[in-house]
Amino acid sequence: MDEHLQATPICSRHRNLHALMAPFGGWDMPIQYEGIIAEHSWCRTRASLFDICHMGEFIFQGDFESGGLEDVFTFSVKSIPLGRSRYGFLLNEQGGIIDDLIVFRLAGDKVMIVVNAATAPKDFAVIKGRLKGGLFTDITAATGKLDLQGPLSRDVMVAFFGEEVATIPYFKFVTMNILGVETIVSRTGYTGELGYEIFIPAEKVCGLWDLLLTDERVKPAGLGARDVLRLEVGYSLYGSDIDEETTPLEAGLEAFVNFDKTFIGKEALLKLKEQGVTREKIAFEVNGRRSPRHHYAICSAGKVVGNVTSGVFSPILGRGIGIGFVSLENVAIGTPLTISHERVSMEATVCELPFFKDGSVRA
Questions:
Q1: Residues 170-203: tens digit of each pLDDT
Q2: Cα 190 to Cα 231: distance, rounded to the nearest angstrom
Q3: CA separation for the pair 256, 88 (Å, rounded)
Q4: Judgement on whether residues 62 and 49 belong to the same structural domain of the protein
């Protein structure tokens, strides 16, 4: 392992399972075990276990308005019901996305903020710099996180932890005792399938990993399968599809911006709405099995009109799929495009998201 990479508590278990490891967001992470396509199929039909301990977790406790937290994100924190979570953005002054994140309402005056691994240190500094009061704590090192995803995940969770799990609606969570410690079980995920994100003290996460893998319906899956799964349902990946140079308006994510409240970056977004964006995110299907890749050029009539931000081979569709940004005259559904890079060239067509519409996420 690169001495500069961080390791999750489960790292030795990945190596014992002969996982292919690689750097991701500053962490040494499993890319695959038996293979990306096999792990993808298992998650779409059974239940897959992902080590997501690299994600960042912060706690804010205090008055949301006087403490300044209410004005930090593109959504209202104070209006999140207890036991529910909300997705949105931390923006810069120009309206660019510093990070996409989820906030969990733990109590009347307490939330957990879950952020991406690579941006976690910057996120903490930016949020802290915008606060006026309250207690703000980074609990990343003390927190383990596992994602159990797939149509059989509810059955597995109920078998181990009881019927309470079966009652959790989408984007709601419960706090329960697992392995003798307080654990948050959330009905959220990144695969388009029914699933749970489990936040447990770091010292217990290996025990939970081992326990869940005793069920024959559960297999470990790496970040390779996770990337295919999330792209098939059109979820954005921070650092590829969204970043500080990209606004929610360009990325087709305006639904997660509440213009009825104050937030950093609002004025820039309002100005952009008035002027109009010059590029937009599109989804496209390749006319064949080739995989488009990040930074490949998107062309129309021999001219470069944009670039690919994410692309994979979709086992579900049997063809290459991708998303990227193009100039406005190329965003209409059905528009023919050419994806090219050096001597690689593939024909593609603009299509609707999600690519895969039959996931069990809301089951």
A1: 999 999 999 999 999 999 999 999 999 999 999 9
A2: 9
A3: 5
A4: no
